[in-house]
Amino acid sequence: MRQATSTKETILESAIYLFNTKGFDGVSIRDIAQKARINPANIAYYFNNKQGLLEACLVAFFEPYLSFLEMEVRNLDHSAPDLCLKKAVKNILQFQSEHHLLTRFVWREISLDSQVVREIISSYLMKERFLFKEIIDQLVNSEKYSPSSKSFLIIQLKGMLAMPYLNSQYLREVWNLYPQEAYFATRYFQVIEQWIKDTMTESINAKKILC
Amino acid sequence: MRQATSTKETILESAIYLFNTKGFDGVSIRDIAQKARINPANIAYYFNNKQGLLEACLVAFFEPYLSFLEMEVRNLDHSAPDLCLKKAVKNILQFQSEHHLLTRFVWREISLDSQVVREIISSYLMKERFLFKEIIDQLVNSEKYSPSSKSFLIIQLKGMLAMPYLNSQYLREVWNLYPQEAYFATRYFQVIEQWIKDTMTESINAKKILC
Question: Which of A210, B65, B171, B210 is 20 to 30 A off residue A55, Cα-Cα?
């Protein structure tokens, strides 16, 4: 059993590494088998084909990712919404740092205009939208933020969350920053925390003006 | 001459469209020729090979993109730094909306860990860093923002600028927003303008505390 898990994980890790250097379509099952030092038949056994590998990556990313948001939506009952959002952001950044290669592959792959992406959108990303909205609605419930403004806040936040992981080579070579390291997640969290604070202040100020 | 430009542009447009749906490595010269309804020899004539097409895309994107930043760095001599940054952001968003397919392809492609990307980083993205730093240094010259904080501000801004264009299918299907339309650039500009204002206020408040 231990052996099985390990082979499966080795295949996934090798696949993600290659997808990030050559692109999903630039990698064959044979390339992955060679990199993982296993027989190609093993890949067929565990994942069927390349499509199966892609699906396994998406599940491995989105299941934990959405669970961080779900947890904080439940916490809204007894915690302040800004604390819930900060907690979700912290967990997402930490998870993305720990799985930076997977994160990079997933966020890049869903920027394609394909059938697979349409399916991910209609399952995972519609759920993500719902969860983010639950939190943001409670965070910025002033008149200033119309429903359309709130969608822009979520888009802005999503851009911030994904950027360093999607562009880790850029961060490393241009800014000497390493998104896979724990200190990065901590430091970058402070940047987003400031943004949440500013956004809330805006909301409170807008309320004061209305009163 | 008119005909030549037109064939070249048709090839580029067809290539970008296909790269965005199937990924760069999932598209052959034959696919592009078929989509553009031209002879594959024409592609070889204008772009040599797929690598040549990629380079043409990068030049078509980064030359105007960097010129917007260069223009505002020059304007720093006689304009307020926040106005310069806002102007650069406005021009970049407008350009990205007008060339949304090219934008999407370029920002996705540079998230790969490849030799081509290393070359783009050492030319275009190091220049981009220099230009952003020139503006940001004048915008947030308070003690609160250490050089490392400033790099995080630029990373945050870059994430915001690219996100909707990189994920235009997501924006369309989840939020019913169309980044290729002019109203989107205008509306999204306001969101980033607010961020610039908040960041500046932070900087001014930090200064007041220090005085």
Answer: B171
Q: Is B24 an 8 Å CB contact of chain A?
A: yes
Say if CB B160 and CB B192 are below 8 A apart: yes
In the prediction, which pLDDT does A144 show? 60
Q: What is the CA B10 to chain-centroid distance, rounded? A: 22
Tokens 């959108």 locate to A121
Residue the block writes with tokens 């916490």: A75
* Cβ density class A38-54: b for 16+ within 10 Å, e for less: beeebbeebbeebeebb
Position B162: which residue type? A
As given in the structure block, the two tokens for residue A164 are 């360093």
For A77, the token pair is 């009952």
Q: Are B41 and B52 in contact (CB under 8 A)?
A: no
Q: Which domains does chain B have, with CATH numbers?
A: 1-48 (1.10.10.60), 55-210 (1.10.357.10)
Contact criterion met (CB below 8 Å) for B64 and B78: no
Residue B161 CA to residue A160 CA, distance in Å, equals 10
By C-alpha distance, which of B5, B107, B10, B11 is closest to B50? B11
Closest approach of chain B CAs to the CA of A1, in angstroms?
A: 34
Query: Strand ranges (DSSP E) for A22-85?
Result: none
Residue B26 to residues A19, B172, B195, Cα–Cα distance (Å):
12, 24, 38
| Token pair listed for A135 | 């939190």
Nearest residue in chain A measured CA to CA from B166: A111
Sequence-ordered list of residues with C-beta below 8 angstroms from that of B207, at least 6 positions apart, any chain: B142, B143, B144
Q: Which pLDDT does position A199 carry in this prediction? A: 81
Burial of B150 (0-12, 13-18, 19+ CB in 10 A): middle
Structure tokens, A150: 């709130």
Q: Is B160 on the interface with A (CB under 8 A)?
A: yes
The mean pLDDT values, 10 residues at a time, for chain A of 211 residues are: 75 94 90 95 93 93 97 95 95 97 94 86 93 90 70 93 94 94 94 88 56 42
A25 and B25 in contact by Cβ < 8 A?
A: yes
